[in-house]
Design a protein that fits this description.
The protein is of the alpha/beta class. It contains 13 helices and eleven strands. The protein has helices at residues 48-51, 56-76, 87-91, 95-106, 115-127, 168-176, 184-204, 218-227, 235-238, 245-256, 260-264, 277-291, 303-310; strands spanning 2-9, 13-22, 31-41, 80-85, 111-112, 139-144, 149-154, 158-164, 212-216, 241-244, 295-299. The strands form two sheets. Strands 8-7-6-9-11-10 form a six-stranded mixed beta sheet, sandwiched between helices. Strand 2 (13-22) and strand 3 form a beta hairpin. The longest helix is centred in the first third of the chain and has 21 residues, at 56-76. It is globular.
């Protein structure tokens, strides 16, 4: 048994998983048991699409959350720590400032992942538990982040992957930030941008081979919670739920036509997602429409779990 700590710093949130990982016997999978799982919305990627830089305020928010995580890691006695950064840090011209802060807090150098590396760990984290549902393979695992979305096709391992620069924060800042709710013209511009990216994914990932769509990350889990009409966020109800394309479309339409105040009243809504959930839902809706999926299996486990498994 090894106690590990995984930190995933994305465009919108920074997350921590402290877990005990036990190796399996010959021919058997191991187990991953949560000790602590945390998430803070820090909006590290705020403005990066426009300026190409991580702002001082965004770095301060992120480092504040990380210091609290470092205290938890020390308290729980994790033996191994891995810090991974994704889209916003990949794109930033001043990422050295981020790296220096992480080294000071955790004593390890953060790994700024390529899109392909991010895709592989997302696939690992999302699919280890799917066997009990017996969904048809291959899977198309879709991880909708703040700055990018990863598409990974595979059965027991990755066959093809592509990362494209559509995410809930990036699409909001590009197209949906003005208007409460956004105008039809703004939504149409966002759809055109998303659909262009989805066409690019088809060039390298044979999405038509996929038999099951698996959706990851906060935009997808929030859409699931709304579709299930949950009074509050319930990860046990959301994990491995199956949401139809019609449900996704109805939720997306409702979010895009709601005011900020109306979105904030949803019981499952994290306050940090209120401004960007419309764009995140729209990305999921377009994926299902363009690729012809009738349903999505929603997973609470993703790249964070993949990082933890990689430390075993």
């Amino acid at each position: 048994m090894t106690r590990v700590a995984a930190i995933d710093c994305g465009t919108n949130s920074v997350r921590l998983l402290i877990a005990d990982v036990a190796a399996g016997g010959e021919g058997e999978d191991g187990t991953l048991t949560d000790v602590e799982r945390r998430m803070e919305i820090v909006r590290l990627g705020e403005g990066v699409d426009r300026t190409g830089l991580l702002s001082a305020a965004a770095l301060d928010r992120t480092f504040t959350a990380m210091r609290a995580y470092a205290a938890l890691i020390e308290r729980h006695g994790a033996e191994k720590v891995r810090v991974v950064a994704t889209s916003a840090t990949r794109d930033a011209g001043n990422r050295a400032d981020f790296v220096a802060g992480v080294v000071e807090i955790f004593g390890v150098v953060p790994e700024v992942f390529t899109g392909d590396e991010e895709a592989e760990l997302s696939f690992l984290g999302a699919t280890r538990e799917l066997a009990e549902l017996r969904p048809a393979r291959p899977y198309l695992v879709v991880d909708i982040g703040g700055g990018s979305t990863e598409f990974v096709l595979g059965s027991s391992s990755v066959q093809a992957a592509r990362s494209v620069d559509i995410g809930c924060v990036r699409m909001t800042e590009r197209h949906l930030k003005d208007g409460d709710p956004p105008s039809p013209e703004q939504i149409a511009d966002a759809v055109a941008d998303i659909d262009t990216a989805l066409a690019a994914v088809r060039e390298t990932v044979p999405v038509d081979e996929a038999r099951t769509l698996v959706g990851l990350a906060g935009s997808v889990t929030t859409v699931s919670g709304i579709a299930l009409d949950l009074p509050e966020y319930d990860p046990e109800r959301i994990h491995l739920s199956r949401i139809t394309a019609l449900q996704v479309h109805d939720v997306t339409r409702g979010l895009l036509h709601a005011t900020r105040a109306e979105r904030a009243r949803a019981g499952v809504m994290h306050p940090g997602r209120v401004d960007v959930i419309g764009a995140g839902a729209l990305i999921l809706d377009r994926i299902m429409r363009e690729y012809g999926f009738g349903a999505v299996v929603v997973s609470e486990h993703d790249i964070l779990d993949g990082i933890a498994w990689s430390l075993a």
